[in-house]
Amino acid sequence: xxxxxxxxxxxxxxxxxxxxxxxxxxxxxxxxxxxxxxxxxxxxxxxxxxxxxxxxxxxxxxxxxxxxxxxxxxxxxxxxxxxxxxxxxxxxxxxxxxxxxxxxxxxxxxxxxxxxxxxxxxxxxxxxxxxxxxxxxxxxxxxxxxxxxxxxxxxxxxxxxxxxxxxxxxxxxxxxxxxxxxxxxxxxxxxxxxxxxxxxxxxxxxxxxxxxxxxxxxxxxxxxxxxxxxxxxxxxxxxxxxxxxxxxxxxxxxxxxxxxxxxxxxxxxxxxxxxxxxxxxxxxxxxxxxxxxxxxxxxxxxxxxxxxxxxxxxxxxxxxxxxxxxxxxxxxxxxxxxxxxxxxxxxxxxxxxxxxxxxxxxxxxxxx
Amino acid sequence: xxxxxxxxxxxxxxxxxxxxxxxxxxxxxxxxxxxxxxxxxxxxxxxxxxxxxxxxxxxxxxxxxxxxxxxxxxxxxxxxxxxxxxxxxxxxxxxxxxxxxxx
Lengths: 368, 103
Fold this sequence. Notes:
The structure holds two protein chains of two kinds.
Chain A: E1 10-14, H1 41-53, E2 58-62, H2 72-81, E3 85-90, H3 97-105, E4 110-115, H4 120-127, H5 132-142, E5 148-155, H6 163-171, E6 177-182, H7 187-191, H8 193-196, H9 200-216, E7 222-226, E8 246-249, E9 255-256, H10 277-283, H11 285-289, H12 306-309, H13 314-321, H14 337-345
Parallel strand pairs in A: 1-2, 1-8, 2-3, 3-4, 4-5, 5-6, 6-7
Antiparallel strand pairs in A: 8-9
Helix pairs in contact in A: 1-2
Chain B: E1 7-11, E2 16-17, E3 21-23, E4 29-31, E5 35-38, E6 41-44, H1 48-54, H2 62-72, H3 78-94, E7 98-102
Antiparallel strand pairs in B: 1-7, 2-5, 3-4, 5-6
Helix pairs in contact in B: 2-3
């Protein structure tokens, strides 16, 4: 591709917003797409070919729950035929071993199975349904199929002290990779933020534990850890930089630079039904908006780190500072950092002697 | 880790080389840069790294890979070739891209 815009490396394919789980930190937007708006098998297949043409190597099938699509096997075949590496990011519901076998035969390369906690009661509380036992069954079936397995745990205040048990679950499985990903505060997680943010002490303990685990398990399991950026000194290079590595397509076909981009007012997103993926990547206003450094304000504009973190996350800048072009307020150099510190000052655990009260969660619903 | 010379390296589940050619939407075939695909990662391969990974098929021992590459890269010191190969296989193993079958 010319014009100095790097090729996208991965396509995040949100196949549906339908999901049997109702997780309190779901990264989907608050406005969920109905089934009647979803792209067809043929439309997705074209998107996969166009993605491969544009340089994309990997497709992450996600949602909602991708297994809710009855045509999932055809979609795996289509993405493989286009030359893509196919990952399925799944809750494991609804799945039986025969369908798992068919997916692997169709060319599925990698399954990322989510767990909400190490123990059933908390796991079911977080996802608002009964799912944990089924996930354990899926984990057992996976031992008999040749596919890469990642276990994913989304980490927050309620489960961060169970990390050792979560790691034990990963060690007893066939996973070669385990992710401990702290909640990032967008969408449903932003709505539930006060109940999800861990304390600084909890975070420090978990980081210490996982550093040792990473060392001990080298060559057996890759241990990956994502910190909650509210506690970081510098912001994350969100999505590897806006419009630099990743392209996300929503269930209804809108192409976004990241999961949360629709929160930014005034951005217009093109739809893959009307435009080719490569054209959208190169030319669409939304992808161009925060490429390069033109849009940056101080202190980013003259910061030595601007090519490492690209000023952090645009959606977070909008959510916390009210300006999508501002320095991400989680940055210690950001003029608006005091807003993040004020949020963190509210995060206090009840004394250990008290029974924790179940928070008043806002659970994500299932769209029509 | 240092691989045993008589073990058989094999790409782990979910790790594979991309196809060397791809069909474009327009119908023609184009040469693709060779890449080792794995969960959430991709490694561009060329020269010796590609020669090594292509032989990680569960049929070549580490020793056979060393011997074959010493022939291909005969202008390099044989001990250096061996050390580089062992280092690279160890790295791929730590990234969970490689398993070693014992004969």
